[in-house]
Structure formats: C-alpha cells, structure tokens
UniProtKB/TrEMBL annotation:
It comes from Albidiferax ferrireducens (strain ATCC BAA-621 / DSM 15236 / T118). Keywords: Aminotransferase, Pyridoxal phosphate, Transferase. GO terms for biological process: gamma-aminobutyric acid metabolic process. Its cofactor is pyridoxal 5'-phosphate. It comes from the Bacteria. The keyword Lyase does not apply. This is 4-aminobutyrate aminotransferase. SUPFAM superfamilies: PLP-dependent transferases (SSF53383). PANTHER family: AMINOTRANSFERASE CLASS III, LEUCINE_METHIONINE RACEMASE. GO terms for molecular function: 4-aminobutyrate:2-oxoglutarate transaminase activity; identical protein binding; pyridoxal phosphate binding. InterPro entries: 4NH2But_aminotransferase_bac (IPR004632), Aminotrans_3 (IPR005814), Aminotrans_3_PPA_site (IPR049704), Class-III_PLP-dep_AT (IPR050103), PyrdxlP-dep_Trfase (IPR015424), PyrdxlP-dep_Trfase_major (IPR015421), PyrdxlP-dep_Trfase_small (IPR015422). PROSITE patterns: AA_TRANSFER_CLASS_3. Belongs to the class-III pyridoxal-phosphate-dependent aminotransferase family.
Length: 432
C-alpha cells in the first residue's frame, strides 16, 4: 500500500500529541493501516499479532468477512433513522436473539445503546425505576465505564477517577473475592452485610452490580459460589442483581455469557464490546417486568442500536454458530493457560495464571511474591512485545497484570507464535 510506505508512526504520534488531549491515553505508539483476523500491519508495513483485540472487541477478528458483508449490505438500505423515530427489523431480531441467549427461566426484553458505559447507566436507571430505591453496591477493583455514574461504580482510582470527582451519591463498594490476595467468598459477602449495617439499609439498595470476571481489575474470576450467594442475598432483600458482561460477554469465556457457568440468572445483564465485531453497540437484557419499569421515552438514545451495528451483531451470532466459537473459546483458553503455566515454571516473576475460557491473564510480581506487585515488569513486557511484533495490554489494581484477548478466530499457529514472543520477552527482560 502506498499509504503505508509514506506514513511513519513517529510523525503521526507527533501530530496526535499536538491535536488530541493527553488524557486520551495510548498503550502503544503504533498506527494501524489494516487488520485481518488476529494480525495487523502498521503504517510502516510492520506486522503484529493482536493479543489485545481492541480491548475484547474483536472476538471474531479484524474485518471478519461475514460481518463486513452484512454491514455493506445494510449500507445500501439505510444507515440511521433513530429507532425511537422510525423502527427497523434488525433491532427487533437482535433483541429476540439476545433474549433467547440470556440465562433465566422468565420472559426477557432487550434494549440497545452505543457504549458499555451507556448500558451500565441505563441498567442502573431501570433498577431504580423498578425498585423505587436509590442505592447501588459495586465491588473493589471493578470497572464499569468512564462517565461520572459509571466512574462512581468503578472500584479503581488511578487513572480513571483521579481529578474527576465528586461522583454520584449512594454508591458503595464491597470486597470482591480474591483467594490469591486473601479475600474469601465469606469475607466478600460479609463486607456487603457490613454495608447494610454501617452505610445503607438493605431496603434502600436497588441493585448489586458485579463482573463475573473483572476486566480492568485484573481478570479476577468470581467463584460460582460467590455469584450464587449474591443471587440469594439479592432475593432475600428484594435487590436486583446486575451482571456487567461488557468484557466477558459475546463468548469470550466459553459461554455466551460468563454468568451461565455459575448457574445464576441475573435480573439484568449488560453487554457490549465484541457483540458486533468492532461496530459500536451495547445492550441491556433482563427480566421483562424489570425492563418495562421506565415509562415510554425514559430510555433510548440518538444512535442507540444503530442499523449498521445491529446488522453486524446479527452476523457475529452467525459466525459463532458456523465456526463453533464457544467451543473454540474453551479450547483456546486451555491452550493459553497450559502454555503460560509452563512459562511460570521458568519465570519466577509470574505469580499467577488465571482466567475463564479465553479470557486469560498473568500476574507479575517481584520474585513471584504476590505481596510485591511488579507494574514495571508488566510495562516492560508490553513494550518489548511491541518491538517484537505482539500487541499486549496491562491491567489490574496495581498495573501488574498482562491480559490476553486474542480473537477466538485466531489459528493455533498464530496463538503459539504470540506465546513464544511472550516467553522470549520475559527471558530478555530478566536478563538485563
């Protein structure tokens, strides 16, 4: 491509710094020119393996041909009406499909929005409308978005909440269970009971929102027992349970929704990221009676449920069916964890390998001591990997976790090539 040969990453970064606010961070000083499945090429023609997937957006890969074909076909029909003005069938069909996929032996309804933060905000609005209560309980290390309400829910200060307060009132944080760091399921549930005693009575709590696997928080997996006890606690007090599946949903963990693996049916689930293969759409799916609580006009948005994104999301569902991607997610997760655990045996800096399905991460600590998180090592690993042609992302409360979100459609050869780069990077970094 002529454009690839004329542009340079460094000059583009200089233009970016001059034109874009510094608050819009960037993990890698790389500008993409094109992408195909699990590979990308930058403007200088260098190839990279993509283990980031646009932060869990590309479960079906870059430019999936089925998704692209569906969007191209929709482009020739109409691109926008605002669903609340003129409705269109793809929105309704997608809602029907999501309703059928969501767990729970009860009638369901789904609404669409544009971003994950919008989905979470609307789930909170719906919960308050249904329960006539105001308080919300979230969890430490949780991440729910960048708007003021979702930042209030988020349980991580830097860099998301720093300098942006005050945040909305009546949001309380309980301890998320983390056996590796000494927080048991019993202690987590006890922390909720403590909130009921010390901060807000249970009868004023509208909802508890939880990620079945914490994303930005470090890929901490909620034990099934914990989610089951949350469900029981919510039922006891008339509280709604919201599962935030923005990052875990759309098949990343081996089931369409991660919460399915705990045999728990939340009252509402939020979904976004990979549900449309790179096109912006999000959803709230939940109990029909709960979803119907707001009055007509109380929900919606100008671009909510874009026709193009609905077409893309319907295509993603077909790709999952045709290519058996839920099974592939489970197989891929086993391949990743097996390889990373072998690396951990020879690299003491890897204190833990964890995940659910193909949502996998390693936690890096000094000398493998979980009490000494090594964020610098995580940064160096990501930087070294970029130099060697692999895109990685860090996360975690202390920034010492490296997560893998490679497209589920990636070949074993590509995945193994990326894993070999991680191994080589760790060897090189520790040799310095």
């Amino acid at each position: 491509m002529q454009r690839e040969s004329n542009l340079k990453n460094a000059s583009l970064m200089a233009r970016r710094r001059a034109a874009v606010p510094r608050g819009v961070g960037q993990s890698h000083e790389v500008f993409i020119a094109r992408g195909e499945n699990a590979e990308i090429w930058d403007v200088e023609g260098k190839r990279y393996i993509d283990f980031a997937g646009g932060i869990a957006v590309l479960n079906t890969g870059h430019c999936n041909p089925t998704v692209i074909a569906a969007v191209k076909a929709q482009l020739d029909l109409y691109t926008h009406t605002c669903f609340q003005v003129l409705a269109y069938e793809p929105y309704v069909e997608l809602a029907e499909r999501i309703n059928a996929l969501a767990p729970g032996d009860f009638a369901k309804k789904t609404m669409f929005l544009s971003t994950g933060a919008e989905a979470v905000e609307n789930a909170i609005k719906i919960a308050r409308a249904y329960t006539k209560r105001t308080a919300i309980i979230a969890f430490t290390s949780g991440y729910h978005g960048r708007t003021l309400l979702t930042l209030g829910l988020t349980g991580k200060v830097a860099p998301y909440k720093t300098g942006f307060g005050p945040f909305p009132a009546e949001i309380f944080h309980a301890q998320f269970p983390n056996a590796l760091h000494g927080v048991s399921v019993d202690e987590s549930i006890a922390s909720i009971e403590s909130i009921f005693k010390n901060d807000v009575e249970a009868s004023r709590v509208a909802a508890i929102i939880v990620e079945p696997v914490q994303g930005e928080g470090g890929f901490n997996v909620a034990p099934p027992e914990f989610l089951q006890r949350l469900r029981a606690l919510c039922d006891q007090h008339g509280i709604l349970l919201i599962a935030d599946e923005i990052q875990t949903g759309a098949g990343r963990t081996g089931t369409w929704f991660a919460v399915e693996q705990s045999d728990v049916a939340p009252d509402m689930i939020t979904l976004a990221k990979s549900m449309a293969g790179g096109f912006p759409i999000s959803a709230v799916v939940g109990r029909a009676d709960v979803m119907d609580a707001p009055a007509p006009g109380g929900l919606g948005g100008t671009y909510a449920g874009s026709p193009l994104s609905c077409a893309a999301a319907l295509a993603v569902l077909e790709v999952f069916k045709q290519e058996n991607l839920l099974d592939r997610s489970r197989q891929l997760g086993l391949r990743l964890t097996t390889s990373l655990k072998k690396m951990a045996a020879s690299h003491r800096c890897i204190a833990d390998v964890r995940g659910l399905g193909a949502m996998v991460a390693i936690e890096l600590c000094k000398g493998g001591d979980i009490h000494q998180p090594d964020a610098d090592m995580a940064k160096r690993l990501a930087a070294e990997a970029t130099q060697r042609g692999l895109i990685l992302l860090t996360c975690g409360t202390y920034g010492n976790v490296v997560r893998i979100l490679v497209p589920l459609t990636a070949s074993d050869a590509i995945v193994d090539e990326g894993l070999a780069i991680i191994d080589a990077c760790l060897t090189a970094i520790q040799a310095v």
